Amino acid sequence: MCPDCHSLEVEVADLSGRGTVHSFAILHHPRHPAFDYPVLVALVDLDEGVRVVSNLVRIEPADVEIGLAVEVEFEARGDGAVPVFRPSAAGARA
Amino acid sequence: MSAPGLDAAIVGVGSTELSRAAGRTELQLACESIASALADAGVGASDVDGLVSYTIDPVEETELARSVGFQDVRWSSRVPYGGGGSMGVLLHAASAITSGRADVVVAYRAIRARSGATRFGAAKTSAAPSSNHAGTTALQWCMPFGALTPASWLALNSTRYMHEHGVESADFGRAVVQLRAYAATNPAAWGYGNPITLDEHQASRWIVEPCIRLFDCCQETDGSVALVIARNDRAADLRQPPIAIAAATGAALFEQEIASDHYVADIARMESSTAIARRLFDESGFARGDLDVAMIYDAFTPILFMQLEALGFCGPGEAKDFVAEGNLGLDGALPCNTNGGLIGEGYIHGLNLVSEAARQLRGAAANQVPGARTALVTSSRTGAILTSG
Prior knowledge:
The complex is a heterodimer.
Chain A: E1 18-27, E2 39-46, E3 51-55, E4 69-77, E5 80-87
Chain B: E1 9-15, H1 26-41, E2 50-54, H2 61-69, E3 75-79, H3 88-98, E4 104-112, H4 150-165, H5 169-184, H6 198-203, E5 206-209, E6 212-213, E7 222-230, H7 232-235, E8 243-250, H8 271-284, E9 293-296, H9 301-310, H10 319-324, H11 341-344, H12 351-362, E10 374-378, E11 382-388
Parallel strand pairs in B: 2-3, 2-4, 9-10
Antiparallel strand pairs in B: 1-7, 1-8, 4-7, 5-6, 8-11, 10-11
């Protein structure tokens, strides 16, 4: 339910796939067999105003920083795919 | 609006040993700590008419009644919000007693967080949209990305906090050195006899970089803690000097999750702790400077810093200096987590911080604050002010 208007209607919207790293975490322990460590987790603020938890790809852990501009790609996981983020060609913005 | 005063006191405290392998069920652990708390209070099982625990506690009320011998429980409740709710049993029990819905309430938590199925530091992979009473469904958006533990969820807040205020791992380490110094002289603590240096903290391995090292983590612990809580007039006739619940409150704010507040506007600030502090001090008439000792939920060092700031003991970004100046020590402005905290003593969902506050107010703590009469106990969503004599 929408907490502002209590509407139950849902629609799918296309987003740009671009965003900014709001925070991050480099996971070392514990290690689950489904993942390659260290796992790079990030909170990404999408340009449209939505914040999502995701992974960073195509970047070394030491290069991850808050404010990094990122763009989406999709990575196969199990039966489906999840959105993950790589550094954008435009570089850091914030 | 300020709430009417509470009329309830902690009259009994019980605990099992804290270990890494209790070798018995949570039910048995709960029975043992409750029996210990009843004996401490001088109250019989048949006097108990109220029970309160947590939504994530595995011990059922019906099993306890049969095992401990409760004859007629007329009020019971469970507190949500995971660890953030840890002090909520005081609010629930005191509210029930003050309203006349119960006379003698047992609050309990039993956990096998090291040897049992609920080992918090282990990787959990449930991505179900139902939380199974763990309190939040937002973790379904963490687990597909490998964020499987409380440390990994809280790290996102912690990294942002460090970024905004220029905090480094060594700043956290100074708090851990103090907590481990307290634990080193507390025979009940996991860290008894084993203090650490800042260098040892900095050499401990990363759990989550750049914010949480191994020594920043609370101890996965097996054990149980129980409290007996009764109305003040009844408390006056019992075995132990009563510890009054002068104020108790909770704060569950819009967009808050459990150990994963990733969607609030400012993820580096624990706003619910600010709300709790405001209400506790308004309700009790006490000021921060009146507190002799504080117990602050330290599942991981960064959230201890964030709570020190949100509770108003120092300004935003000032916790690193507040800690470095020694304010958490016995001679500091705010002796804090004097049992060693959840990091140094062990983790019984934070309820062992209430036991420590009770020991302080009875003058019986291993690291005693001389003449302590007023204590704050708080986790991110719940808190209370306790007083003695």
